[in-house]
């Protein structure tokens, strides 16, 4: 590790865009808490649409951020983002890059460490990302821009020094997409703390138990399938999130489904405290909300796919369904209701994914990536770059 009298590396944080509230933005907040002096560099920043803690941070944006419409509609900026990302220059010894598509293309003067949520889904998982019935315009746009964006994306990936993957599924996807090795570092779980005197965000929720689905409202999140699973049931479902599918989802909601968005931490804490279980049918590369529910001792009902396989153990903190289909989701909900869950066991399982574990692992990665000799631990042999295996530099592999 770096000794106390050694000069500390200048650390910066990079992220695609801060225009929404989601798991990736929570990771950036954790990085910022670990390195409070680090400047955050991002393409777009809309304070009203993301977590309020960012307002107290130093955030540097691209020129594209001057266009108010794009700050509120970042998907519309897609044709401009490769150019904007390529022109972002970060002067720091180490840049911690949080990305699923753009920030890995920022230019850096020092070591670039990428924390990857997935290689760009709209490029390499187009059918899943766009959903079952995408518009002709979306199909045409991806067909026209796809080849050029893939060339840009791969050049950006090969400019990085080290890749970290959020889950085993993403580690495999990084290898398949780029031919690069990566190290799995689980994302931090930071559920909002209970607030004394907090009240329900919706008056109708105080009388009956309910299930909770927290998600961006995108096609591949399969929120529509979760809603259909509760249709005709006496059980209640609360959906929390915003996104382009909002109007379509509201149009199909039965009376026992409530949709909410833009809640405070206190309101989110109330929902976690009072829900029966968390439901997630999305194709998640990691999946934070079932773990956040687990911090309150609540079980989860999740799709047997991707990152959920790393964090959910049947009978310990949740149950699976194999396909995002209403009938399978409904059956899994029935099984969870019938089981006797040990809240202490759930909390103990989730604790291994907390923020302190994440920060410790990130600090270890930085120590390994900081230039200069590092003292060997007692009984350890000197570590050579060729010994790093999955931590090997991406630049060295091209």
- What fraction of residues sit in β-strands? 5-15%
The helix-strand sequence is EHEEHHEEEEHHHEHEEHEHEHEHEHEHHH
Structural domains: how many = 2
Range of helix content: 25-40%
Low-confidence runs: 373-398
Radius of gyration: 21 Å
Could you give the distance between the termini?
A: 29 Å
How many beta-strand runs?
15
Q: Which features characterize this protein?
A:
35% helix, alpha/beta, 3-stranded parallel sheet, 398 residues, Rossmann fold, 15 strands
Can you describe this structure?
The chain has 398 residues and is of the alpha/beta class. It folds into two domains: 11-188 and 354-397, Rossmann fold (3-Layer(aba) Sandwich), CATH 3.40.50; 203-351, Glycogen Phosphorylase B (Rossmann fold), CATH 3.40.50. Helix content is 35%, strand content 15%. It has helices at residues 23-34, 68-72, 81-86, 121-124, 126-130, 136-158, 168-178, 223-230, 246-252, 265-274, 289-295, 308-311, 326-338, 343-351, 355-369; strands at 11-15, 40-42, 59-61, 89-90, 94-99, 107-108, 111-116, 162-165, 183-184, 210-214, 236-240, 257-260, 278-280, 300-303, 318-321. Mean pLDDT is 87; it is low at 373-398.
SSE topology sketch:
Blueprint lengths: L10 E5 L7 H12 L5 E3 L16 E3 L6 H5 L8 H6 L2 E2 L3 E6 L7 E2 L2 E6 L4 H4 L1 H5 L5 H23 L3 E4 L2 H11 L4 E2 L25 E5 L8 H8 L5 E5 L5 H7 L4 E4 L4 H10 L3 E3 L8 H7 L4 E4 L4 H4 L6 E4 L4 H13 L4 H9 L3 H15 L29
Parallel strand pairs: 1-2, 1-5, 2-3, 4-6, 5-7, 7-8, 8-9, 10-11, 11-12, 13-14, 14-15
Helix pairs in contact: 8-13, 11-14
